[in-house]
Design brief:
The chain has about 325 residues and is of the alpha/beta class. The chain contains 12 helices and 11 strands. Bound molecules: N-acetyl-L-norvaline and phosphoric acid mono(formamide)ester.
Amino acid sequence: MKHFRSLHDVKDIKALIRRAITIKRHALRNEALGRGKTLGLMFMNPSLRTRMSTQIAAANLGMQVAVLNAGRESWALEFNDEAVMDGEAVEHVREAAAVLGEYCDIIGLRSFAGLTDRAADYAETMQSAFVQNCSIPLLSLESATRHPLQSLADAMTIEEYATKLRPKVVLSWAPHPRALPQAVANSFAEWMGALDADLWITQPEGFDLATSFSSRARVCYDQDEALKDADFVYVKNWSSYDDYGQRGSGLDDWQISRQKMALTNDARLMHCLPVRRNVVVESALLDGPSSLVIPQAANRVYAAQAVLETMLTEMM
Ligand code: AN0
Ligand code: CP
């Protein structure tokens, strides 16, 4: 794999999941592989897990890591090629990305959807600008439409905790006070689809994901019906794709509660975090035995390490 932007960059998904599970037992098995190599991490948006887990993964491989946070720490970037730069933006992505390409061997980029221009978000304009202007491999730390490191950690977690070959996995929409991107849900649906899980997606009318992501799932607008006999419940809010970026209202009863989990087959509860307690999920569930949110977050280290190990190996 040169870049890691989506599932489509991965030759063998199951092998990558197995690699992540092996690394979990032998985190320092390749501690010299990345010696002399630099991973740059560019964050256009906040992060706790991705920021920490990716740095730890790189350190386990002997890489050095340089982190740049957009905002006050860095120059405001311009992405429009025709811009007359007499406004806020100080530097064009053409120079910024090219310079990062000189300093680093791999560049990680977090660039959330703007949620106003669907065509631009789904064309991944920000990520593409980096790929086009720096010659080094790009590692997605969540882009406008996908969060593949999260999906790899999620797939790994399901592999570890599944008690049957083809578990029923339900991706459920839940309420949230702010409009969020579709990236985590898109990516989860894409990976689960490729792994041939019994994937259901449940959401209110008007919150369908783009069909390119949901086509392998059974879509159900009745949350109770979808939750029946589920083995894994993956909770996530996303804003509307059709009415782009809108968060809807009057949908608070989509919160995942103990009562709703009682409909499942004693399902394990998953969420990528950060999660708003008692809005998205009832807090007792996060504190209870069904929750996998912490092991899921822990697996982000091994997911990142499996991807970096593959990139470094193929770079040689
Ligand atoms: C982000 C999102 O929903 O895409 C990041 C999740 C990993 N969440 C928030 O902004 C709260
Ligand atoms: N799940 C996840 O990517 O978390 P952060 O936004 O904290 O990195």
